[in-house]
Amino acid sequence: xxxxxxxxxxxxxxxxxxxxxxxxxxxxxxxxxxxxxxxxxxxxxxxxxxxxxxxxxxxxxxxxxxxxxxxxxxxxxxxxxxxxxxxxxxxxxxxxxxxxxxxxxxxxxxxxxxxxxxxxxxxxxxxxxxxxxxxxxxxxxxxxxxxxxxxxxxxxxxxxxxxxxxxxxxxxxxxxxxxxxxxxxxxxxxxxxxxxxxxxxxxxxxxxxxxxxxxxxxxxxxxxxxxxxxxxxxxxxxxxxxxxxxxxxxxxxxxxxxxxxxxxxxxxxxxxxxxxxxxxxxxxxxxxxxxxxxxxxxxxxxxxxxxxxxxxxxxxxxxxxxxxxxxxxxxxxxxxxxxxxxxxxxxxxxxxxxxxxxxxxxxxxxxxxxxxxxxxxxxxxxxxxxxxxxxxxxxxxxxxxxxxxxxxxxxxxxxxxxxxxxxxxxxxxxxxxxxxxxxxxxxxxxxxxxxxxxxxxxxxxxxxxxxxxxxxxxxxxxxxxxxxxxxxxxxxxxxxxxxxxxxx
Amino acid sequence: xxxxxxxxxxxxxxxxxxxxxxxxxxxxxxxxxxxxxxxxxxxxxxxxxxxxxxxxxxxxxxxxxxxxxxxxxxxxxxxxxxxxxxxxxxxxxxxxxxxxxxxxxxxxxxxxxxxxxxxxxxxxxxxxxxxxxxxxxxxxxxxxxxxxxxxxxxxxxxxxxxxxxxxxxxxxxxxxxxxxxxxxxxxxxxxxxxxxxxxxxxxxxxxxxxxxxxxxxxxxxxxxxxxxxxxxxxxxxxxxxxxxxxxxxxxxxxxxxxxxxxxxxxxxxxxxxxxxxxxxxxxxxxxxxxxxxxxxxxxxxxxxxxxxxxxxxxxxxxxxxxxxxxxxxxxxxxxxxxxxxxxxxxxxxxxxxxxxxxx
Lengths: 504, 359
Description:
The structure holds 2 protein chains of 2 kinds. Helix content of chain A is 34%, strand content 26%. Chain A is built from 17 helices and 20 strands. Chain A has helices at 45-52, 79-84, 102-107, 118-131, 147-160, 177-192, 204-210, 233-241, 300-308, 330-335, 345-349, 356-368, 376-389, 406-419, 436-451, 463-469, 492-500; strands spanning 5-16, 19-30, 34-38, 60-67, 70-74, 87-90, 165-169, 196-200, 213-218, 221-227, 266-273, 276-284, 289-293, 313-320, 323-325, 338-341, 424-428, 455-459, 472-477, 480-486. In chain A, β7 (165-169), α6 and β8 form a beta-alpha-beta unit. In chain A, α8 crosses α17 and α13 crosses α14. By secondary structure, chain B is mainly alpha-helical. Chain B has one domain: ABC transporter involved in vitamin B12 uptake, BtuC (Orthogonal Bundle). Chain B contains 17 helices and 2 strands. In chain B, strands 1-2 form a two-stranded antiparallel sheet. The A-B interface holds A 308, 310, 329-331, 334, 340, 342, 347-354, 358, 362-363, 365-367, 369-373, 395, 398, 416 and B 8, 11-12, 204-208, 210-211, 213-214, 217-218, 220-228, 285-286, 358.
C-alpha cells in the first residue's frame, strides 16, 4: 500500500502577515484514489492546494512526488512548474478559452514547438474524448458545450498532460445533479487509470458518494486522515468543527416564552437575494434570541444579509411588526429598527481611519439625516456613554478605530448599533477573533438585550455560544434551511446531527 | 487642560505640517534673497483704480482658480479614491458657455452676469454628473472616466463659440476677474474666501464630510450603515463641477475673452498636486480641505518665486518639479514613519516605555 503513494506532503508551514495559515500539515495521496480535502472556510484547504500548484511558496516542509516507482523531493516554483511535474488543477471557474475549439483548448500552449499540426491535434483530441467518454466533438467551439462538459474538457486537458495528481477545486458547485453524475463517472474512470485525485468540495454527500479517503483540516492544522468507511458523516462534521461527539455536554439554558398573539417583530417568506438563491422563511418575536447555524459557507451569513437588504434582494415578502414593508437596501432595514453587525468586521464593519467617536455615531447619524449632523459635543456624549457602558478600551474618543484591538473594534461596532436602539439586532459572528473575556461580555449583552425586549438573531461558529444564547436555531446546509430546533432540542449533539443530515 | 486641547488640535492637523513648512521655507528663502519681496504698494492701474500690487498679492490672486479647483478635487479624491483630470477642459466649456451668454445679451447687467454664471454652472454640473456616473455607477477608475472629457472637452468648448475666441468688454466682467472699483484687493481673492466659507458651512450643517470619508475609506461598510456610496461619489463630482464653473468664470473675467485652447490649461495636474501637498491621501478617505488650499498657495508661491528669480519661463516647470519631488518625498509614509520614530527617540525612552505599557 505504501508503495502506491504518488504525492506526499510533510510538515508544511506557511504564514501570511499576522496569520499562521498552515502549521505542520501532512497530506498523502495514493495512486488511483479519490481523496477529499475537507475543512470549514479558512481551515487552510485552498492554501494547501495553492502551495501544491505553485501559487504560494511554503515556508518550510517537504513535498515528495513519485516518478516511476522512485520517490523524490520537489520544489514547486510556479503553476507552470507544478504542471510540468505532473500536478494539474481544474478550478471552480472554467479557465479555458470559450471562443476556441475543444481540440485547441486541450492542446493550447503546451509548448510542443511553435508549429501546429491541426489534423493530428484533432485526431488526438477525438481519441482522448472518446477514451474518457466525454460527449464533445474536437472541432466544436468550447463555449457551445455545457458547463459540465467544459469542466470535463479541462480535466481531459490535465489528464493528457500526463498528470499524476489531479486537483479538482469545487468542480461541482455550478453543476446540476445529472452533470455531477457525469463528472463523477469521469473521476472514477481516471481513478481506474491510476490518477490520484484531490477533491475539494463543501458538499458532504458528494464526498461520501465518490471518495475513498478524507483528510480534514481545521484552523490550518491537520485533524487527521480517515478511510471513508471509518468516518460517518456526523463524525466528519464534528472533526471539521473541532468537537468530539462524545464530549458534547449540554449547558444551562434560558427558556424563552414568546408573547402569544403578537405579530412577529420581523417576518419573511420566500426571501431570496443575489447571494442567497434558495427562498427561505423566517420570523422572530419580540425578545427572542434565535440563530442560524451550519458550517461556514452553508449560507448563514447570506440569509441574514438578505434580511437586512445587504445584498440585492431578489424576491420574497417581508413584514415588520405585522405590516408589509419593502427592504431592499440597508437604509430601509435601519429605518424599520433593524441593526446588522456584519460578519467581516474589517471589510463590512469598521471605517478604519475614522475615530472611535465617528464610528460609534455613524449609524444613528445616518438615521437622523444628511442635513442634521450631530454637534461635536452631542457626538462625544453618545460615544462617551457607550465607551463606558461596553468598557471599550481606547486611548481617546478621537483615536482611529483601526488602532484598537479586535475585540474593542467589535464593541465599537456593537455600540454603533445599540445607539440606534434597534428593535431587532442581527449579530453575525460578533465573537469571532476576540478574546474570551469579551466573548462572554457579548453573550451576556445579547441575553440582557433580549430581556429588555430586543429581538436578536445570533450567528456564531462556536456551537456552545449558540446553545447558550439561542432559544431557537435554524440549521443550514448547502444554502438551505434543513432543520429548526426549538427549546430543549437546542443542544450540541442534535445540532451536529442536523448539520450532517440523514445518516446516523 | 489647555495643553490637552492644543495637543488634540495638533494631532488633528499634523497633515498640514508639510504645506505650512513649505510656505514658511519659501517665505524665509525669499526674505533672505530679497528683503523687499513681500512689500505691497498701492498703485493706480490702467482703469484708474487704486490697487494693491506686489508679489504677495500676485500669489494670493494667481492661486485663486487653483485653490477653488483643489477644494472640489479634494472631495472627489476622498470619495472616489481617484482624481478628475478633466477639470481644465470642463472649465474651458464652462467659460465658453459664460462668454456665449454674455455675448448674446444686449447689455451686460449684474443680472446677466448672474444668469450666465448659473447657466455655466448647470452645464458644468451636467458634465460633472457624467463623470460621476461613470465612476460611481459603472465603477470606472476616475482617471480613465475623466480622460474622456479631458480628451474632448476643449473640442466641445470650440464648438460652443463656433471656433472663435470672442472677447467681452464689460466693466462688470473686469470687476469679476480684476478689481471692483474702490476695492484695492483683487476680486478672485474674495471669491476664494466665499467658496471656502461655503464649504465650511456645508460641512457644518450637513454630514457630507463624514459620509464622503466613510465612503472613501470603506465603501461596503458605509453602505451597510445606510449611506449611499453611489450618491456620495456623484455628489462630489457635481460639487467639483460647480468649482470648475467658478474657476472658469474667474479666468474669463481676468482675460476678458475665452480661449478654449489655453484657458486653465494643465490646471488639473496642479489641482491634484495641491491635494497631495496638502497631505490628503490620493487613494481616498480622510481629507482636509485646508490642506489642499495651502497646497494651492504653495504651488503658486513657488511659481512666483521662480519668476521673481528671473528663471526663464521654459525652465520654471523643471525647477517646480524638483521642489515638488522634495515635498512629496517628505510627505511619503516612509519618511513620515521614520520621522515619528525619530521623534519618539528624541522624546526619550521614558515616554516610549509608557506607550508600550499602554499598548
